[in-house]
Design goal:
Elements (H helix, E strand, L loop, with lengths): L1 H17 L13 H9 L3 E5 L4 E7 L17 E2 L4 E2 L2 E2 L3 E6 L5 E6 L1
Antiparallel strand pairs: 1-2, 2-5, 3-4, 3-6, 6-7
Length: about 110
């Protein structure tokens, strides 16, 4: 029985180790065409998210506008400030208002 318990512990540790982040660098930088397309829209390429990949972060025209529901904004209506989010995409856990004004939290990675 002790051998079986030790085996299970080792297997479990192996599965947990597979979930740890690696020291790998972010994905290759975007191509010049991808960079230019992003910049043409007013965006910037940044490493973002749990996957640490390059993403085109775009500004939103209604950034900072007062909102009461999610449908008032291009992005999120942030519940803490009742203002439209500044950029898209956003990463992390974002408290926001849905289309009916109900407060929700969405986690994006």
């Amino acid at each position: 029985m002790k051998v079986m318990s030790r085996c299970l512990v080792l297997v479990g540790a192996g599965f947990l180790a597979a979930c740890l982040p690696t020291d790998d660098k972010a994905e290759a930088e975007p191509s010049q065409n991808e960079r230019q397309a992003c910049e043409a829209k007013g965006g910037i390429n940044e490493v973002a998210g749990k996957a640490q990949q390059y993403v085109c972060i775009l500004p939103l025209a209604d950034a900072g506008k007062t909102c009461e529901t999610g449908s008032d904004c291009e992005g999120f209506c942030l519940s803490e400030t009742k203002q439209c989010s500044a950029v898209t995409p956003q990463f992390g856990c974002i408290p926001h208002l849905d289309e009916t004004g109900r407060e929700l939290v969405i986690c994006i990675d």
